[in-house]
Amino acid sequence: MASPPLLVLDGLAKLYRRRWPSRRVTFSLTADLAFPEPAIVGVMGPNGAGKTTLFELIAGSNAPTAGRVLCLGRDIHHVKYRQRDRLAIHYHQSYQVRRIRRTRPDVLLDPAPTDYPVVHLFDEPQFNPQDGYIGFMLDFFRRLRAEGRLVFVCLHPTEGYHLDILRELAERWVFVDGGRAEAFADFAALVRDPAAQAYLGRAMRH
Fold first, then answer.
1. How far apart are CA 79 and CA 100, in angstroms?
2. What is the pTM of this model?
């Protein structure tokens, strides 16, 4: 029997609405993506586009408006809160683990099917260009991938070497913009996208 994909975002959507005086949508994000096998995925997009929200949805710390996050075939939002990081774990900036927002009693949720995170989400990690630290982190990401993990590395390339890091690391790409997360098979495909071209042009001028 074939193993389930490591991660599937099935009709995933998150909407934020203004509460008063109308219910106008102020933010939206959708994703229909599949990552069947171990990989290192580079994630980029403008500030405020929803990259951190996407990571929160994948890690189960932010409830979706619609759709499912399937990790090893299990909907992470139906897994016990304290065990969700056994499926997906979200490290924010200086490698702090993001908290999970509780919306349902834990007793109603399922146990995690694994003891160690399958999906690792690095949200704008800090790269110190001194003392070989970048090389250490690249080796760490690659070791996770070699162990069969799915690794997402999100960077906003305010420095030229940030993009160099992602290009050296990433086997696949996700670009978040315009309310949608879209996957690209390689960097060449990414830069053919007009929105990605505009973003990278602005980012590299900073």
1. 12
2. 0.89
